[in-house]
Specification:
elongated; 0% strand; mainly alpha
Length: 193
């Protein structure tokens, strides 16, 4: 009943994922409304978003949802919000995140990022290269992902908390006004009797 008449091809699905047909503002608006209508406190929702943002700096692609859900669960954050928070790392921001984590990791490890022997990055490297050839890249990235992820988490938590708390207060006032407006005519009809 709710399916498309003509299903999307694989190419169309990927294109829609990378660049939504309705545009990014509408996609973000949809995600925002889905988030703030979740049950839970502003702290829980913002903590979930921060957990997802923290994990976005991790170079372990494919595990971000699981890592974010685990961190949100441990800290008492909203798990669905943590999945939305992983969108800090997206196809447009990943190259910058990876360069940042690599450089920060090399700095923290006391290495010069230009001096690290970087193997040639190609598709074949990931298919048939031993793990030891990836360690000069993955090691600094894992180290650098922690401070960068904490920065993302803080930058996500506070604006999210303030925005969600303001939205929830406004929504409560609107619902209270509606409830009072419904109660007023009932009270008037009872007085007339």
């Amino acid at each position: 009943m709710f399916k498309r008449r003509t299903p999307l091809s694989q190419w169309q699905r990927w294109r829609q994922f990378l660049w939504p047909r309705e545009g990014w503002p509408r996609a973000f608006s949809y995600m925002w409304h889905r988030l703030v209508r979740q049950r839970g406190s502003a702290h829980s929702l913002a903590l979930g978003l921060a957990a997802g943002a923290f994990v976005s700096a991790s170079p372990l692609l494919g595990t971000h949802f699981f890592q974010a859900a685990l961190i949100a669960w441990i800290l008492g954050g909203n798990i669905i919000a943590s999945a939305l928070g992983t969108w800090v790392g997206n196809p447009l921001s990943f190259p910058f995140i990876w360069v940042g984590t690599f450089n920060i990791g090399n700095f923290l490890l006391g290495r010069d990022s230009n001096m690290v022997a970087m193997p040639e990055l190609s598709f074949g490297l990931f298919l048939d290269a031993p793990l030891s050839s990836l360690m000069p890249i993955i090691g600094p990235m894992m180290t650098g992902s922690i401070p960068l992820g904490l920065t993302f988490a803080v930058m996500t938590y506070y604006p999210s908390y303030w925005s969600i708390a303001a939205y929830q207060r406004r929504r409560q006032r609107i619902l209270l006004r509606r409830q009072q407006a419904k109660a007023a005519p009932v009270a008037e009809t009872q007085e007339e009797r």
